[in-house]
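Reply to dn_fold:

You asked what the input looked like. This is it:
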Amino acid sequence: MVKPIDTRMVGTRFFRLLTVVCMMFFSLSGCRQDYSLAPPANSEKITVTVKLPKELKTETMWVMYRSAICKSVSLGASGQRLEQDGRHSVYKELERQGESDLYQVELPKDGGGACRWHLANVTFGVEYADPTRFGENVTYGAGGGVVVIFDYNNPPRGGIDIKVGGDLTIKKDYYPWIHESFIGGYSKAINLASEGGIYINYQALQARTVYFEPVFHPSVLVSSEGSKVHKVGNFIKFTYPDGSVVADGQSKPDFWKLQSIRTGRAPECFSRWRYFACPDPRPRLLPDWLPEPDQPGFGRYVIVNEWGSRLPSYSYRLVGKDDRTYEEKTDVDGFTDPLPDSAHPVREVDFPVGRR
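and this is what came back:
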């Protein structure tokens, strides 16, 4: 006996199946939902500028917008519904500003559209412009990347390294690094060695301008060779510009060593956290004149190190506007002794003795 088909049940099952398909395959077209960007004309802009050394070129910028309305829906291992903010990627090329070395792009903060997109993060950077100058088959490897996050979501790569308030200015040193690999086939790549990883992640919630200046030192070249056979104790061998060879288990060059070779200063002088051991500190006097509230007619200066940290018990010698010489040591907070108004602004600043 043939049983009749319940068309209502079939229709319900089809509708449910269609819904699941829409959930699993979230895309720009969606299930009759408009996921496109439509920035309003009055949207606030975020400007990203790169000051480009002649040996480098800019990478294509990956721009990510997010939406709390148009969710990205998937199914978990147990079939449960998983929701995340929807994501929309855009790719931009930074444009050269006239004949200058500045490259720039403007991005609408408000992505608009039915999904009410907002700018979440940007990924950009620099790379070696002509890898073949190091050999016919040399390719670009890695390094020189920056990620800036404008909301509270995690970045596409790793976690947040640095949080900043207001606009963001990034100025970092980079060195050319040639690496040869042997296991699994020979390859040779030119990388950019710097402080941190391939990408440095910044969270800048209030930023409206982002300025990135990679300071490139093409003459300070470090090279490395990977292991030729898998063997315990075989490490990457680094050859530095001063002729030293190091194979200490590290996967990238010692950035502080490169800084030291280039400048002749101790590696500790380039690290905020190790600066206390720097044998060649370079203090400076901040120009702000701070009136002394309990001593009318007098004020103080602040003496800081290269990182902007105040220097306690640091010897100084100042020649004031009144031609008088004031020589002492800073207090525990890095302040000079109270000086009369007639000494401001100072004519000469010297640190003859330094920290004692």
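Helices lie at 7-24, 255-263.
Hope that clears it up.
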